[in-house]
Amino acid sequence: MSIDPATDASTDRITDRVTGRVTGTRLATHDLSLGYDDRTVVDHVTTRVPDGAVTVVVGANACGKSTLLRGLARLLRPGTGQVLLDGKSIHGIPTKEVARTLGLLPQNPVAPKGVTVVDLVGRGRAPHQGRFQRWGAADEAAVARALEVTGTLDLADRVVDELSGGQRQRVWIAMALAQETDLLLLDEPTTYLDVAHQVEVLDLLHDLNATRGTTVVMVLHELNLAARYADHLVAMADGRIVAEGPPREVITQERVSEVFGMQCLVVEDPVSGTPLVVPIGRHHSRRPTLVANGATA
Amino acid sequence: MTLTNRTTRPALAVTIALAVLAAGVVASLHVGSRMLSPEVVWAALTDPRADDADHAVVTARVARTVLALLAGGALGLAGAAMQGLTRNPLGDPGILGINAGAALGMVTAVALLGVTSLPVQIWFALAGAAVAGVLVHAIAGLGRDGATPIKLAVAGAAATAGFTSWTSALLITDLQTLETFRFWQVGTVGGRGVEVVGPVLPFLLTGAVLALTGARLLDVLALGDDLARGLGRRAGLDRLVVGLSVILLAGAATALAGPIAFVGLVAPHAARILLGPSYFRILPMSVVIGAALVTWADVVGRVILPPTEVQVGIMTAVIGVPVFFALVRRGRMGSL
């Protein structure tokens, strides 16, 4: 779906320009600027996260994509504008209430030394528990479900430090799932994973979105995987959104060179049919046949 | 099926810790410059009419055992809460100057202001602990990289040195107070009767409840600030409550037994090694280990250098300093 920027900002409905379907948006930004000290990193961004879709934010290093995600997760106070959750300013909502709606997995989270998988995943239940409240059946069930969905049930008693990178990332996602939120924000969930584990983690997130309807927003580095897994792709440069919409519309040769400052060829991914970016460096020139194939694809 | 709270043989570790604690209590009643037989101790404990020298010795030993249990448990718990709160493996109210601050507050009340009522003195101890805690964290927080564990430890050591010399200065100008606080200043459970427990107990219990109910918060804080926020913790208020518990526990323990260091360092680390990283286990286990540690430190201190007694505060340092260096050398300072 592509978002019509002319949509009235006061409504929470988005009319899809192509299909005319109306989808909701629970998470949005309005004129949002974020920064550290005096440096503005996200610059007057207004956008909406489509419900029930996988949104992926891409862009060059330091373009503000992680900062935008942190802003959406109310980890940063806006310089201007605001983040809206269900139409209300996210900073005006009690943080525990936000935590029951919106889950966050930061980049490279560090597990306490010696913590077991089940203990770590159980900590995702914190927003549902009071200070004096005991661990209950609902918590137990949520943890069991999260372990099962992520395929980590058989790791439950293992110590997190001893797991492989891919297993560990699935455990962290399980922790975020135990939080049982409708929205899930992930900051580069595939960093430091080899390509097989990257695909494994992204498949898992796709499944979650497909089976539970969880709205997923993530920052990804890998453009081709982003194009493959995103329903809604957001391209950022210099703290602004330069394009958003279906990957097919967002990823063009001109835009990739604008956003990443790199010459490339965009062809069709032979597996998924999504755009596939083939970078062109200084040392390789286009082979005529490839250009022909790419052009006809 | 219970998915949660499974680790390797926690029951065994808890049983052993409780056994060591119980043995410490028994030893504390029997051992000293005057060794007593179990029959004598039993008779003195059970026969209210007994009124001989042995009975007096046992009564004094009961008092110091109670003090050791309370001060040790409180300091162990305060250390665990502090390590979790600041994610600093060197978080110990002794190392970070809080106990010394409490001692200065108390001695100021006694020597300078002539406060004779213990309940009022405790408030001064708590105020001293709070001021020290804030001051040390403020000093360590200067500079670009914020309050790192090492900077906190250095700031704490400096503050302790400052507070302690100030405390000494106040004491030596006041002979009468010096007589009362000479050993207390180093950390001791002997020489003060069981009657000091009553006024301190409400503070200890309040601090203990606040700390023990903070387990879930500390478990979430251990995941880092971003995740803690994502999981719905309001860092400020939550931290204030746990910080208050540390002040209450450390201040009250100091009022009881003087500034004892290293218990709050050793007990939580031992608990963590034995039971894993969940604060639901670390906090109560730190109470048990802290109490056992101070009780045994007192017992050993009575007999190690006859005919004199070595104060508890010195004995815990003998045990604690190697642990401190081991933690620093291990180099994983940020791993909590």
From TrEMBL, chain A:
InterPro entries: AAA+_ATPase, ABC_transporter-like_ATP-bd, ABC_transporter-like_CS, P-loop_NTPase, Siderophore_ABC-ATPase
UniProt entry keywords in alphabetical sequence: ATP-binding, Cell membrane, Ion transport, Iron, Iron transport, Membrane, Nucleotide-binding, Transport
Annotated GO CC locations: plasma membrane
Species of provenance: Knoellia koreensis
Compartments where found: Cell membrane
Protein name stated in the entry: ABC transporter ATP-binding protein
Gene3D superfamilies listed in its UniProt record: P-loop containing nucleotide triphosphate hydrolases (3.40.50.300)
Membrane topology reported for the UniProt record: Peripheral membrane protein
One Pfam family named in its UniProt record: ABC_tran
Domain of life: Bacteria
GO molecular function annotations of the record: ATP binding; ATP hydrolysis activity
GO biological process, one term: iron ion transport
Annotated ranges, domain ABC transporter: 27-263
Claim: Oxidoreductase is one of the keywords in the record: no
Keyword Protein biosynthesis: no
TrEMBL record, chain B:
Topology class, membrane: Multi-pass membrane protein
Ligase keyword on record: no
InterPro entries recorded: ABC_BtuC-like, ABC_transptr_permease_BtuC
GO biological process: siderophore-iron import into cell
Transmembrane found in the keyword field: yes
Gene Ontology MF term list: transmembrane transporter activity
Localization per Swiss-Prot or TrEMBL: Cell membrane
UniProt entry keywords in alphabetical sequence: Cell membrane, Membrane, Transmembrane, Transmembrane helix, Transport
Family membership: Belongs to the binding-protein-dependent transport system permease family. FecCD subfamily.
Protein name in the entry: Iron ABC transporter permease
Species this chain originates from: Knoellia koreensis
